[in-house]
Amino acid sequence: MSASLSSKRDLWKMKKTLFLFIIGFIVFSLFAFDIFLFPPNKSLFKFSRVVIIAEANDIQTSFPIIRAFQSKPYFHMIISLKPGKNKIPLIILKNGKAYRKTLILHYYPSNNYHGDGKKYQFHENEEIQSLCSQCHMTNKIKNNFCLNCHVDKKGDTPYKHEAFDPNDCTACHEEKTQEITVSCYDCHEQKPGRLHSPYANNECLLCHDPHGSSQKSLLLSDIRSLCTQCHLNENYQEFLHPVQRHPMESKNIFCTTCHNAHGSPFSFYFQYAPEVFCGKCHD
Question: Cβ-count burial of 117 within 10 angstroms (0-12 exposed, 13-18 middle, 19+ buried)?
């Protein structure tokens, strides 16, 4: 009889402990979520650079960081996503306590991404915009409200896009959502023929910055980095390319030395006809 009562007491204690643990975990999770502000989990971005913001003293992660800084009461951490699904482990520190959160973010610059991420529109979230404006709008730029946040779009890059006016963003963007409302082919004539998929689908922004760039031809970065967004880098490194020792940047042989990124009438988008191709460099 006493053994049975003792067993029931032990079972009751176990249930009570489990119940308190579950309640504590829920409260902990809700609090951790409450201090985490941006971006929402499982968001899909078309641009690689993302700012993670939490109402905290610090954010730590093993994921590569571009920059991190405190602007009380918010901590900002800038990261650069890799194409596809990114799993970002976060340790959020506040008032001497550490809260762990795993953030899943998707990045794919093309509209053809079929992953699980949900496209996030910052400019449609009035609550977040109101929160950010408390600090970011203290010194307003009179001519253009957008430049209070998009400080890198002031038109002061070495290579400028002639059509870009830093005082008139609505020439290309919808005012509320900032969605692009124009096509590059409104000004640039699309050439005919066998076209490279991004060029054929008007996805010029995979490689070019329409505002301006530090790279020639308004490229977003170096040529290899752009090409390996889609063509997996491990298959196109020096000595692993289908043609031995190509590409080789050390000898000024780039992807575009041989291939036309927009399109070509020749196979593999070659710049030249196969019968004269190699003779452009080799005797």
Answer: buried
